Each structure stands twice: as C-alpha cells, then as structure tokens.
Amino acid sequence: MLIPSIDLLGGRIVQLVQGEKLRLAFDDFEYWIEKFSKYPLVQLIDLDAAMRQGDNSALVAQVAKRLPVQAGGGIHTIERAQQVLEAGAKRVIIGSALFSEEGTVNTDFAAKLASAIGTDCVVAGIDTKNGLIAVKGWKANVELTPDEAIPQLEPHAAAFLYTHVDGEGMMQGFPMETAARLRNLTKRQLIVAGGIRSQQEIDALNALGADSVVGMAIYTDAIAV
C-alpha cells in the first residue's frame, strides 16, 4: 500500500533531504488534499514540533478533518496524543518518547499510552541513522537498534513505522534486505519510509509485507498519484 506523506514546516508542506536540507515547499494545501483524498491512509508529520521549534497544530487539525491520517511529530505525552486524535487523526505516531537517553525502551510509557488511547491508535516510530534509533527530530541517536526495540514494543502498538533517515528524500531506493529483516521481527503492520522512488519498489515492498510511505517521489512526479 502506498501511503502519501504530508510534512509540515513553518506552515507549509515541505520535503527535506535526510531531515535537514529543504528541497521543496508548497502552499497549496487544497491541491494536495484533493490529490490524496482517494487513499485510505495519509501520513501527516509536524516537523516543527518534532524539532522542538514550534508547531503546526492548527494545520494538523485542518488536514486531519479532511483526510484519514496517522499523525506524528512532537507527540511526547498521552495528553498530546489524545488531542491529536480528538482533532481527527485516526492514529498517532510516537517516536522519541518511546526511548530513553540511556538507550532503553520506555515500555512503561508505551503500555500506559496504549491503555489510554487504545493499541489500535498507536504507531511506533522507529527512525534510524547509521543503524541506531534517531530521536529529537533526528538530531540525536540512542544506543539502540530496531531489532532490540521492536520486540519490546510489539504488545503496545498496532503498527511500526520504520524511517531509513540515511536515505530520506534522496530517492535512491529503500534497502530491501532491511524490510525483509524487519518483517520477521513483528506480526504488526510494518510501514517503511526513506528513499522510495518507484511504483515497482512499492510493489516489491508490498510483496515482502511492508507498506510504503512516499514523499519526495510524489512531489517530484516520479510516482503518479
């Protein structure tokens, strides 16, 4: 399944390379909402909130009322998760809050979150740089691998979103061997992102049992939507 991505930064829809360099920016929300309205799921990320430099809460609410979204970015508390769901999101993506600076999985928080909002509403964000989990808007790493984290979070999430930050926005392809390895780690829905560039790649990932979040390839017309 193709899951289009809407990333928000400074009140605009953007595409970044490796989470840092601005490549594209758009103001025409109506155009993209209409484009994505036929998809059963759209990913909506508040990059300002993820980077702890403000937020786009009003925009998140506007889009979530129009599209079936899983929303993430800066959701660190149960209260914030509840607010995003009340604003219209179908699910919330939780990343940094699941991990401690000491390199452990915060299973206590994950369990409390799942209990409060329902496991079906939790997407665990597993973002990696150089093989280690990245946190705080991809500005820091913890000494923890996806292989260590996913089994511990399995009881508390409906899905895992794995973002290969090293390839994000570069359209050089997603590592298929990684997708295959991750698929063997969990029985939950597996969603992957980072560098996906063609429909053929989406089909190959689908055959492995992974859904694909696509951003740059859509916004540059490499993949038609």
Describe the 3D structure.
- It is a single chain.
- The chain has 225 residues and is of the alpha/beta class.
- It has a single domain, classed as Alpha-Beta Barrel (TIM Barrel).
- Helices cover 31% and strands 28% of the residues.
- The chain is built from nine helices and twelve strands.
- The protein has an eight-stranded parallel β-barrel with strand order 1-4-5-6-7-10-11-12, surrounded by six helices.
- Strand 7 (122-129) and strand 8 form a beta hairpin.
- The radius of gyration is 16 Å and the shape is globular.
- The mean pLDDT is 94.
How many helices? The count is: 9
The backbone outline, from C-alpha atoms, is globular
| Major sheet: arrangement of strands | 1-4-5-6-7-10-11-12
| Helix/strand structural class | alpha/beta
Helix content: 25-40%
Any idea how many domains?
1
Radius of gyration: 16 Å
Straight-line N-to-C gap: 12 Å
The assigned CATH architecture is Alpha-Beta Barrel
Strand content: 25-35%
> How much is the average pLDDT?
94
Write down how many β-strands occur, each being a DSSP E stretch of 2 or more residues. Answer: 12
* Uncertain residue ranges: none
**What is the CATH class name?**
Alpha Beta
* CATH fold-type name: TIM Barrel
Question: Which sheet architecture does the biggest sheet show?
Answer: 8 strands, parallel, barrel
